[in-house]
Write a structure and sequence with these properties.
By secondary structure, the chain is an alpha+beta fold. It has twelve helices and five strands. The chain has helices at about 10-35, 40-60, 65-90, 100-120, 125-155, 160-185, 195-240, 250-260, 280-285, 290-305, 330-345, 365-385, and strands spanning about 270-275, 310-315, 320-325, 355-360, 390-395. The protein has a five-stranded mixed sheet, sandwiched between helices. The chain is elongated, with a radius of gyration of 35 Å.
C-alpha cells in the first residue's frame, strides 16, 4: 500500500495551503458578520461556519499523539458548528428556538463530547465513538433539511438559495465519507497524511465548505434583501399612486395608468367624471367623518362595477374619475349596475346624490381634454337637477 502514496512533504504542502485558505475565509466571514450586521442569525451562522471548518481541519491531523485533542476538539467543533448553523437558519426564517430548547440542545452537545472523552480515555471504543458522532450529526442534518424545506415553502422567492444550501450540505457529506471509511478504523495512522483520494476529497470538502458555505449564505441574505427592496419599491409606488382614504388611484396614479393604457392598441373607452352633490354641506352639517364615509361608499360602488383594465380614481376632494375600457355591451352593463348603486346610496341612512358626466375617450386623445369635456357637461346641469339620486349627463362630442 505504501508504494501508492506520494511523499509526505507533498501532502504537507497541500494540507498547509488548505489550512491557510480555509482560515483566511473563516476570518473574512467572521469579520464581515461582526462589522456589517444583517438579518437575524447572521453572526450565529458565522460562528457555526467557523466551528465547522476548524473542526474538519483539526480532524485531518489525527495521530496517536493528538488522538484525544482531535476527538474532543475536532468532533466537538463540528457538532457545535452544525448546531449553530441550525439555529442561524431558524432565526433567519423568523422562528428562533426557545431558550429552553437551545439550552437542551447545547447540553446534549456537551453530553456527547463528555461521552467521547469516556470512550477515548476509559474504554477506547472507536466504533462507539463513530456511531455516537454520526448519530448526532445525522439528527442535526435531518433538522437542517426540515428547516430548509419549511422555509422554502414559506418564502418561495428564496427557493434557489435554500436549494444551494441543501446541495452544499449533501456535497460536503459525500466528500468526507471516503476518508471516514478509510481512516476510521484507526489501524493505519500514517495513511491520514498520504496523498490519497480520500484525503484529497477531505481537503476539497473543507474548501467547499469554507468558500461555498460563505457564498451560499451570503447569496441567501442578498436574495432576501433584493426581494424586500423590490417589495418596498412596490409599496412606495403604490403609496405614491394610491389615495389613502379610498384605496383608489390618486391623480398621479390615474395619469400613470392612463399612459400605460394609451401605449397599447385599444378601442375607445368610456370616461366618467363624478362628484357628490352638496358635499360641503355634508361635511359642515354632519362632520368630516360623515363626509369621509360618503367618499368611501362611493369608492366602493365604483370599485364593485370595475373590471380588469378599468381605471378608478379619486382625483381630489369629492371628485372621482372612472374609465371603462371594455366592449360596448360590457360598458353598458357596468353603467346600469352603477346607476343602481347610486340609487341605493341615495336611499341609505347617510344618503347622498351623485352627478356624473360621461364621454368617450378616443385612441390617442389626451386624458385632461376628455376629463374637461365630461366635467363641463356634469357641472352645466348640476344646479338644475342636483336633487335627483344621480344626474347623468353625456358629452358625446369628441375633439
Amino acid at each position: 500500500m505504501e508504494q501508492n502514496w506520494i511523499a509526505l512533504p507533498t501532502m504537507t504542502v497541500v494540507a498547509g495551503m488548505v489550512w491557510l485558505l480555509a482560515t483566511l475565509v473563516v476570518l473574512f466571514a467572521v469579520g464581515i458578520a461582526w462589522t456589517r450586521p444583517s438579518y437575524p442569525g447572521w453572526r450565529t451562522w458565522a460562528a457555526g461556519h467557523s466551528a465547522l471548518v476548524l473542526g474538519l481541519l483539526i480532524g485531518t491531523v489525527r495521530t496517536p499523539d493528538t488522538l484525544l485533542l482531535c476527538i474532543l476538539a475536532g468532533n466537538g467543533l463540528v457538532m457545535l458548528g452544525a448546531l449553530l448553523y441550525l439555529h442561524a437558519l431558524r432565526r433567519f426564517g423568523g422562528r428562533p428556538p426557545s431558550r429552553r430548547r437551545a439550552a437542551v440542545q447545547v447540553g446534549s452537545t456537551l453530553g456527547v463530547v463528555l461521552a467521547l472523552l469516556l470512550l477515548t480515555v476509559v474504554v477506547d471504543n472507536l466504533l462507539a465513538r463513530l456511531l455516537l458522532v454520526s448519530a448526532y450529526l445525522i439528527g442535526v442534518k435531518v433538522a437542517l433539511v426540515r428547516v430548509m424545506l419549511a422555509q422554502q415553502r414559506a418564502q418561495p422567492a428564496l427557493r434557489g438559495a435554500y436549494r444551494l444550501q441543501l446541495a452544499l450540505l449533501v456535497t460536503v457529506g459525500g466528500l468526507t465519507l471516503p476518508r471516514t471509511v478509510s481512516v476510521g478504523p484507526g489501524d493505519a495512522w500514517e495513511a491520514a497524511f498520504a496523498l490519497t483520494v480520500p484525503n484529497v476529497l477531505m481537503y476539497v470538502a473543507v474548501i467547499v465548505l469554507a468558500v461555498g458555505g460563505t457564498l451560499a449564505f451570503w447569496l441567501l441574505h442578498e436574495d432576501r434583501r433584493r426581494l424586500e427592496l423590490g417589495q418596498l419599491h412596490e409599496d412606495l409606488t403604490a403609496q405614491a399612486e394610491q389615495d389613502p382614504l379610498t384605496a383608489l388611484l390618486n391623480r398621479r396614479g390615474l395619469w400613470q395608468a392612463f399612459a400605460r393604457w394609451a401605449r397599447q392598441p385599444a378601442r375607445p373607452a368610456t370616461l366618467l367624471v363624478l362628484d357628490i352633490n352638496e358635499f360641503k354641506t355634508i361635511n359642515d352639517g354632519q362632520g368630516h367623518a360623515a363626509g369621509d364615509q360618503c367618499l368611501r361608499q362611493l369608492a366602493g360602488a365604483l370599485s364593485s362595477v370595475a373590471q380588469p383594465g378599468d381605471l378608478v380614481s379619486r382625483v381630489g376632494g369629492d371628485e372621482f374619475v372612472v374609465m371603462l375600457t371594455g366592449v360596448p355591451a360590457q360598458v353598458e352593463a357596468q353603467l346600469a349596475a352603477l346607476h343602481r348603486c347610486f340609487h341605493d346610496l341615495a336611499r341609505a341612512p347617510t344618503g347622498f346624490t351623485t352627478s356624473v358626466g360621461r364621454t368617450q375617450v378616443a385612441a390617442g386623445e389626451a386624458l385632461d381634454r376628455a376629463i374637461h369635456r365630461a366635467d363641463t357637461a356634469m357641472y352645466g346641469h348640476k344646479e338644475a337637477r342636483g336633487r335627483l339620486p344621480v344626474v347623468w349627463v353625456e358629452a358625446r362630442e369628441v375633439g
